Amino acid sequence: MGTDGSATHGPASSAAATNTADVGTSTTSGSSSTGVMILTITVISASQLPKPNAATKGEIIDPFVTLTVTGAVNDHAKYNTRTIENNGFNPVWNEVRLIEI
Question: How far is 14 from 45, CA to CA, in rounded Å?
Fold first, then answer.
């Protein structure tokens, strides 16, 4: 996951070496006649998130993750996790999102 909250397929880490995020994905086939598949995205946690550039010293951040899936015309989806109040160091979401693709 990048510092902008975007995620990639499978376990990912952010641009900075000390910042990590756990994101898992899997797909499940739907009806063979419709060709629909379900993408399962699990946002697990992050660690040692940096403060925003404009943050003042000692300020605690309230992180959230924005997932954006971009594909064919009908395969676009955007999802925000819940905001974790006052825990920018080791936030845990454990949120699952099912997206039809």
Answer: 12
CA 33, CA 87: separation in Å to the nearest integer? 46
Closest by Cα among 81, 85, 76, 84 to 97:
81
Residue ranges of domains in the chain? 12-100
State the pairing for strand pair 37-47/20-29. antiparallel
pTM (two decimals): 0.62
Q: What are phi and psi of 19, to 5 degrees?
A: -100, 130
Distance CA 27, CA 57 (A): 42
Provide the pLDDT for residue 13.
34
Superfamily of domain 12-100: C2 domain (2.60.40.150)
**Residue 81's pLDDT band (boundaries 50, 70, 90)?**
very high
Among candidates 75, 9, 4, 69, which has minimal Cα distance to 37? 75
